[in-house]
Here is the input.
Amino acid sequence: MIRVLMVCHGNICRSPMAEFVMRELARERGLAARVEIASAATSTEELGNPVYPPARRKLAEHGISCAGKRAVQMRKADYERYDRIFYMDAWNRRNILRITGGDPAGKLLPLLDDREIDDPWYTGDFETAYRDILEGCRLQLDRLFPR
Here is the structure.
């Protein structure tokens, strides 16, 4: 079992989108029993809140449900629990390092190699965020489970 944690600032847009997109991709590839996927925030601002409605709608457009998901904050213990921790932007990485105290095992990775995933909370562009997240999830799932 490989454990994956998706992390963004508030855990109401990007990281839950990534959590549920990767779950769907894993299910489609018959890998659901081999990977555990969760998401968390680096901040406390949205704790307990559901996925932001535009993010929920964007997932629903693609037949993906995020029902029941509530924002949680990453904890230091999560570093030991998860095998890979994917972040959306450099600010998330800095905050994860603040929470964990470092990355001695090299578990922290950007979801996309070549660019950050802009926060649609600020940009309002949930379509681009979804496309970038889908691309990143495909890339990372292929790396975790080469075909």
Q: What stands out?
A: Residues 2-138 form a domain with the Rossmann fold fold (CATH 3.40.50.2300). The chain has a mean pLDDT of 97. The longest strand covers residues 2-8. Residues 126-144 form the longest helix (19 residues).
